[in-house]
Every structure is written in C-alpha cells, then in structure tokens.
Amino acid sequence: MRSRTAYLTAIWITLMKSAQKNATRKRATDLDIAIGARVRAARKRAGLSQADIAGKLEITLQQFQKYEKGINRISAASLFQIADFFELSVLDFYFDIPVLPSSASELSESEAMLLAAFRRADFELQDAVRTLIFAAVT
C-alpha cells in the first residue's frame, strides 16, 4: 500500500507542477497584437498570402496566423527572420506604437469598448480609424 500511495502522490505533484507552469505562462499583450498587425500589413503590402510567408519561414500556416492576430508572441529570432524577409528593420515593427495602460482596469468603460471594437475590425478599417484620429489630434 505504501508504494501505491507514494506513486499517486508523485503523480499528483507532477500534475500540480504542470498546472502551475501553465498558469504562469505569459499571454500575448497589446504589444504582441500591434506587432502582429504590422506583420500583416507588411505581408499585404508585399501581396503575399499567409501560406507563402509561413512556407518561407518554415513554420505552419496556423502559427503564422497566430502571429498576425497577436495570439502567440513572435520570438526575437522569428521577428528578425520576418523583418529580413520583408527587407525591413526589426525596429519598423515597434516604431510609433503608443504606450498603453499596463492593465485593462486603467481604461475607462468607453475606452475599453472602443478598444474592443477596434480589435474586431479588419486591418483596412483599423488603418483608416488610426489615420482619422491622428489627423484630428495633430
């Protein structure tokens, strides 16, 4: 009986460590979403499909889609590859990204609603809204 209890305890500890590791895994941020949108814009300017780029980078189509949507973070090495592919600097993906509040709780209700609607919009509409807002405030 002692060995069965020890075995079950070891399994329980392993499962708890795994759950703890998954709980502390970092999620994509607003910065990841902004960088993904810039990758998408570069791809569209080049007139290429997601599958074309995924093949060139030797990653799956699904992984590239997650990069563009900001669901998965793009590693520094992958971002360097992407920038090199489009003949851009890695800094081009970071240039002029506004500093956002560190948490959603810092947004007012109307700001949060506006941000949520903006994220649901396609890239062309997002670009038009950005242009309109920047023109209005400068």
Structurally, the number of domains stands at 2
Order of helices and strands, N to C?
HHHHHHH
According to DSSP, the number of beta strands is: 0
Give the DSSP E fraction (strand runs of 2 or more residues): under 5%
Rg is 20 Å
Secondary-structure-based class equals: mainly alpha
Helix content: 55-70%
What is the first-to-last residue Cα distance?
75 Å
The CATH architecture of the largest domain is: Orthogonal Bundle
- CATH level 3 topology of the largest domain: 434 Repressor (Amino-terminal Domain)
Determine the CATH superfamily of the largest domain. Answer: lambda repressor-like DNA-binding domains
Number of helices: 7
CATH class (first level) name of the largest domain? Mainly Alpha
| Overall geometry | extended
- Main sheet, how many strands, which sense, barrel? none
Q: Could you name the ranges where pLDDT drops below 50 across 5 or more consecutive residues? A: none
Overview of this structure, please?
The protein has 138 residues and is mainly α. The chain has two domains: 27-97, Orthogonal Bundle (434 Repressor (Amino-terminal Domain)); 101-138, no CATH class. Helix content is 68%, strand content 0%. It contains seven helices and no strands. It has helices spanning 2-24, 30-46, 50-57, 61-69, 76-85, 109-120, 123-137. Helix 2 (30-46) packs across helix 4 and helix 3 (50-57) crosses helix 4 (61-69). The mean pLDDT is 80.
